Predict the 3D structure of the following.
Amino acid sequence: MSDVSSPRPSVGVPGVGFVGVGNMGWPMAACLVRAGFQVQVNDLRREVANNFVQQIGGSAPGSLRLLAQTSNVVITMLPTSAIVAAVLGSGDDNLFAGLKPGTVVIEMSSGIPSITQELAEKVAALGAHMIDAPVSGGVPRAKTGELAIMAGGDAKIIDRVMPVLSAMGSNVLRTGAVGSGQAMKALNNLVSAGGFLIGIEALLIGQRFGLDPAVMTDVLNAATGMNNSTQKKFKQYVLSRKFDAGFSMGLLAKDLSIALQVGRETATPTPFSALCKELVLAAQAMFGSDADHTEMAKLCESLAGTTLGA
């Protein structure tokens, strides 16, 4: 069953091809299945695609070409823009080999905006359309279909695939031309990382003064120091010492590199952002790319010689 493509999508129920069913892609594709879309999945790890079909539903065609031929919408959710480019048009098997005129490609990876813009031109040359729509919210919100989606591209094309986007996200935010969604995603994660790091430093200062970090977190959440990390990360993943928020250090470092690249391309001074990136890279070197990003707190603790909550 898993090696046979889905039948041609019926009118009103577009066939969706989903490439990349990893930590985020799996629950996102599962939301599409639950919403009634005819979903076909592909992953470099063939067994993962087959497991998705067995556990969730849909089908797993034997090639990217076949997936593209039988889909009205194709979603890519992959680690890097280089991998997206390869899946689209490199090698013996790729999406371009089967992409139909009028198909909409939704690039949902946290990619490099300038590369995505180049890929969109290649997609347009085939008579198809491309938008970028990276997400924020992590695995928990991917599972519930409540992601924030930053959509860049032609407004009419976004309108056309809005039912698909709405099945995965509770808030679809239009950001401008293609590539703008990825720029916004990288900048969002830059702000998120900055809020996390400054908040951890504040907790360390307070604890060494004699304040309880848990009480400090409550005060920050009731006052103007509140941010996503104080609300959803400090107690849950740092003070608990679980460090398992579900987003890796390597992916955060990649997003910050993209944000700083956009800064360079726009000739924008980024002194604080550059420091933030260097701290994340230092934590990545210390704990590894696969470590949870909340382990950045351990770097701050090491510099202070203090363990939060100890």
